[in-house]
């Protein structure tokens, strides 16, 4: 008898009307079976135990892009790959697992691989040492339940509090009331659980391999003249400018290699004061460096390298020209620093940086030239600091532009400092007493003073015996 038919002798349903009693009932539909929706993504989590090299992790991610374009870094020891569209190219999950394992072993890093519909689930299973293959959404929670909570890498305090409650697995924490868990352990941990189980989206930033520019040109004849050599390099700089413009990038360092027939390669490294995307400006700077070089042999080929381009934001032009009232000078300061470096040497141009502390002789230090654009920013900070100082209740003390490397003793006559004659103190006292904790403490009373020629000086008197006077700086 067909299961979809009910015999006439069967008792009628209580709700059947009088006419339907004894009549066969045909085509009664079965209860619908709820089918699980197909998974839209399948993630491969790669855990590399003991792996802590950021550079090697990026190289491995670059190699992993042969399997899928969607690769994400999880420093310091993890990778995530979305591989659903790539399974048919590698004979399924087993073939892809074998290929990924082989790539990882090239870096001397035996991996643990797991596959799951959500990225965090795949990575958590791999961190727990479980090579799971969860290919259906209905299997996700059941497969994750026995995994330890430590695989989520939550804060140690949170894990310790949950352990005191007897909760050590993912399944146990998923059974807790959501509202109570959020109140006691934070909304952030609850969001992690939602991303783990697929209740909330888990958007992972895509990894992009670092681009670099590398062009070589073989010359038709060997060159020794610097002008002709720069002319031969011009197409390379034009290609560099187009490369940077297409990617909205700039460079701060690049290298020009000059190849000789029987001599080692001559390397000319260019260091820019600020990120630059202008090929003509870089070519002019390279000409300055080449003019200062003495070539050991004729050049038969040249090559231009730019390893790590950086994001570039074009400079906004000011209404006023540089040098006029309100004109920005940051656009020309970078080119000036670069020319001075090329002509005088890299050690001839310095910047100044401030140090924390109150000892005048150790509040500044030499540094590299500041990048273009930072001068106006520092000027704004200085103006803001001056405005705050103007509204302060305590006196504001000026500092001289020239501070001596070491304080210079001053002669004393009748207890008064002299420099070609008696000095006249023209300011209130500023007491600086600091540094007693490191063995180089000072205790001084500073004054602004003028000598007999009207030169403004910065002097101090030691508070400890013998209470000597010293010259420490000269105002402009």
Structure, explained:
With 476 residues, this protein is an alpha+beta fold. Among the domains are: 43-197, 2-Layer Sandwich (Alpha-Beta Plaits), CATH 3.30.70.270; 213-311, Dna Ligase, domain 1 (2-Layer Sandwich), CATH 3.30.1490; 402-474, no CATH class. 29% of the residues lie in helices and 24% in strands. It has helices at residues 54-64, 92-105, 119-127, 140-144, 156-164, 170-174, 178-185, 187-197, 226-247, 279-291, 330-344, 374-390; strands at residues 43-47, 71-74, 78-82, 112-116, 213-223, 249-260, 266-276, 299-306, 310-311, 351-354, 364-367, 402-409, 412-413, 416-417, 424-425, 430-434, 442-450, 456-462, 469-474. The strands form five sheets. Strands 12, 15, 16, 17, 18 and 19 form a six-stranded antiparallel β-sheet that branches. Strands 5, 6, 7, 8 and 9 form a five-stranded antiparallel β-sheet that branches. A hairpin with a 7-residue loop joins strand 16 (430-434) and strand 17. Helix 7 (178-185) crosses helix 8 (187-197), helix 9 runs antiparallel to helix 10 and helix 10 (279-291) runs parallel beside helix 11. The protein is flat. 21% of the residues are buried.
Spatial extent as radius of gyration:
37 Å
- CATH architecture verdict of the domain at 43-197: 2-Layer Sandwich
Distance between the termini: 113 Å
Helix content: 25-40%
| Average pLDDT number | 82
Describe the structure in brief.
The protein is α+β, with helices and mostly antiparallel strands and 476 residues long. It is 29% helix and 24% strand.
């Amino acid at each position: 008898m067909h299961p979809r038919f009910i015999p006439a002798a069967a008792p009628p349903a209580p709700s059947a009307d009088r006419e339907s009693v004894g009549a066969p009932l045909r085509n009664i539909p079965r209860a619908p079976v709820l089918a699980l929706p197909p998974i839209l993504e399948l993630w491969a989590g790669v855990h590399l135990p003991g792996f802590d090299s950021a550079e090697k992790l990026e190289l491995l991610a670059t190699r992993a892009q042969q399997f899928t374009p969607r690769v994400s870094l999880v420093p310091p020891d993890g990778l995530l790959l979305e591989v659903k569209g790539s399974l048919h190219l590698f004979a399924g999950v087993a073939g892809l697992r074998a290929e990924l394992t082989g790539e990882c072993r090239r870096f001397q890093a035996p991996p643990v691989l797991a596959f799951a519909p959500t990225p965090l689930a795949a990575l958590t299973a791999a961190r727990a040492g479980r090579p799971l293959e969860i290919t259906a959404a209905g299997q996700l929670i059941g497969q994750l339940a026995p995994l330890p909570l430590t695989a989520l890498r939550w804060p140690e305090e949170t894990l310790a509090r949950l352990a005191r409650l007897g909760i050590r697995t993912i399944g146990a924490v998923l059974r807790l009331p959501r509202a109570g868990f959020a109140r006691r352990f934070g909304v952030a941990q609850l969001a992690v659980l939602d991303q783990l189980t697929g209740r909330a989206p888990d958007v992972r930033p895509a990894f992009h391999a670092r681009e670099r520019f590398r062009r070589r040109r073989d010359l038709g004849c060997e060159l020794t003249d610097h002008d002709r050599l720069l002319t031969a390099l011009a197409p390379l700089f034009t290609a560099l400018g187009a490369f940077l413009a297409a990617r909205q990038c700039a460079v701060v360092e690049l290298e020009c290699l000059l190849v000789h027939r029987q001599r080692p390669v001559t390397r000319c490294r260019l260091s820019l004061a600020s990120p630059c995307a202008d090929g003509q400006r870089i070519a002019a700077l390279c000409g300055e460096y080449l003019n200062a070089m003495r070539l050991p042999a004729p050049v038969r080929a040249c090559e231009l390298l730019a390893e790590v381009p950086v994001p570039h934001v074009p400079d906004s032009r000011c209404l006023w020209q540089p040098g006029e009232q309100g004109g920005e000078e940051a656009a020309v300061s970078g080119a000036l620093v670069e020319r001075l470096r090329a002509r005088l040497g890299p050690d001839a141009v310095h910047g100044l940086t401030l140090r924390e502390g109150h000892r005048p002789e150790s509040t500044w230090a030499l540094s590299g030239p500041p990048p273009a654009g930072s001068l106006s920013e520092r000027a704004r900070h200085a103006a803001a600091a001056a405005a705050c100082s103007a509204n302060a209740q305590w006196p504001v003390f000026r500092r001289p532009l020239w501070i001596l490397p070491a304080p210079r003793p001053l002669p004393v006559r009748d207890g008064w400092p002299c420099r070609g004659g008696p000095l006249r103190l023209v300011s209130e006292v500023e007491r600086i007493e600091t540094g007693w904790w490191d063995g180089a403490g000072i205790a001084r009373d500073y004054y602004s003073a003028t000598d007999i020629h009207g030169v403004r000086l910065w002097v101090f008197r030691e508070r400890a015996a013998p209470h000597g006077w010293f010259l420490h700086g000269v105002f402009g």
